[in-house]
Design brief:
The chain has 280 residues and is of the alpha+beta class. The chain contains 6 helices and 5 strands. Helix 4 packs across helix 6. The chain is elongated and about 140 Å long. It starts with a helix and ends with a strand.
Length: 280
């Protein structure tokens, strides 16, 4: 037998011997269980005479559970909540004088409107001649259109009456110019600005309306150049909205090459009227 096999056999025998020794020690060392002390009980039968002398045994009486009765609640009368009455504040005058035309004493006033409906006061009762005012469409028809109670022509006349005159040496044109080459570009320009222009909610609730006049430049690439307020409407909230709409509308379409212009200066009127806004 080789030395390696002898060593393996000796190792297994040694492990088995040690396992037996450890098991024997655990069995011998385990403490013995101590039996509980047993008290002897002696049963004695008492005679009848002794049993009769014992006191009677009372049986427990089961306790009856009485359900609790709900306590009736007294109805509390509702007290009316006092309402606070807020006095109505008078609205500022909505008839705003239009700026005077240069060299003329003529003044244009917009009709006074109601802050709730935006309609001219007296439109339900009729005019002086007794005829009620009907909604007029953009072309003057009786059907309702985007310009309530006024026609497209009347809006443009209101815009022209206060337009500031051109300054000396200035090459600006009005937005409603009849020069042929500008008509198509200006029509697109009106649509884009009016799609951004909004009547301020606070101004509509307060009955503010008026017309302001601005001048702005469109550069060759369509970017916005200068922007100037020529005449105020009398209300800063309306002036700020008009200037914001011009800035938000840029960039515009680039100027056509056949114009041979590096800058296109425009003078325009912005009207806030009957809860609607227009640029002319």
């Amino acid at each position: 037998m080789s030395r390696h096999l002898q060593f393996t056999k000796f190792l297994f025998l040694s492990l088995a011997f040690h396992a037996l020794v450890i098991a024997a020690v655990m069995v011998l060392v385990r403490p013995a269980e101590t039996p509980l002390p047993v008290t002897p009980v002696k049963i004695v039968n008492l005679p009848r005479e002794a049993i009769r002398q014992l006191p009677p045994v009372e049986q427990p009486v089961p306790r009856q559970v009485v359900p609790e009765q709900p306590v009736p609640r007294r109805p509390v009368p509702e007290q009316p909540v006092p309402r606070r009455i807020v006095p109505e504040r008078p609205l500022p005058p909505s008839a705003v004088p239009m700026p005077k035309k240069f060299g003329s004493d003529e003044t244009v006033r917009l009709p006074k409107t109601s802050a709730q409906t935006g309609k001219p006061e007296g439109s339900e009762q009729g005019t002086e001649s007794g005829t009620a005012i009907a909604p007029v469409g953009p072309h003057g028809q009786g059907a309702a259109g985007p310009l309530p109670f006024v026609s497209q022509k009347e809006i443009e006349e209101l815009a022209r009456k206060g337009m500031p005159e051109k300054r000396q040496g200035e090459d600006s044109v009005t937005l409603d110019t009849d020069e042929f080459k500008f008509i198509s570009y200006n029509r697109w320009l009106k649509l884009k600005v009016e799609s951004v222009l909004r009547y301020p909610e606070l101004a509509a609730m307060s009955g503010y309306q008026g017309t302001l006049y601005i001048k702005f430049d469109i550069m060759k690439d369509g970017s916005l150049g200068g922007l100037e307020l020529l005449k105020s409407s009398g209300y800063k909230i309306l002036d700020d909205e008009a200037l914001r709409a011009i800035r938000a509308s840029s960039p515009f379409q680039p100027l056509p090459d056949d114009w041979h212009m590096e800058r296109y200066s425009i003078r325009a009127a912005v009207l806030f009227y009957l809860n609607a806004a227009y640029i002319r």
